[in-house]
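Appendix B. Chain record.
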Amino acid sequence: MKLFVTGAGGQLGHELVLAIREAGHEAIAATHAQLDITDEEAVRIAIGSAKPDVVIHAAAWTAVDACEGDAEKAMLVNGTASKFVADAAHAVGARVVYISTDYVFDGTKPTPYNEDDDPNPQSVYGASKLAGEQAMGDGDAIVRISWVCGYHGANMVKTILKLGATMPELKFVNDQIGNPTFADDAARAIVHIALSGKGGIWHVTNQGAVSWYEFARDVLRAAGMDAGKVQPIATSDLQPPRPAKRPANSVLHNGAMQSAGFALLPDYHEPLARLVRRLLADAGE
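Structure tokens predicted for this chain:
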């Protein structure tokens, strides 16, 4: 099969291209520099000329706090442009796998979120990604991921390692919980969904729910650093306060994957150890 990947330069996009090729299929990688998804004509031409079987739409503006300050841009990139991608894909008979987020939920549910729970985004970013979900067609797939970390791009594992090596004390919130999800694991599952031909909504995360405070301690432990230097703090005590509201509960239940008989992603400690080893090896070169 031929799979077209938008946002191929991002931390998930890199891994999607690798996963497609590892699975023996053709990957057409479109980075932001190669394709501006907000240019409807460019999107139509790029997808129309490639004639893929599936478009995995991973391109997005994911700077959550920056989105809060520019709702118009957020809605254009994450909402309107997603409709451009879907329309162009459908015009050549391709299905779309749209990458979405835990931020479509308000975070007030006391238990993990199911795929059919009602979204209620509390941030501009969340609202713009929900608009992208709503731009998809009946046969398309929506894959929600959360707390994404990986080898490529900026993410919390890299931030925590840097702070852990340079700061005597780190403060992380202990009242936001979620599923850390590693880009290489997620990419393989997303490609599996894409190749399966199945539509609908999917929650794809590594197993294990944790607070950011606990996760920061896990990262330092994996690196052989002192986890005791991480101190808990309440979201309300963050200075300066974050512009965008974060969901207190971001835990996503992987019900659709279970129902389909698909293998769940491993516990997050496993890919965390793998990623930290790789990053530390690079730093030691």
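Further analysis of this model is presented in Appendix C.
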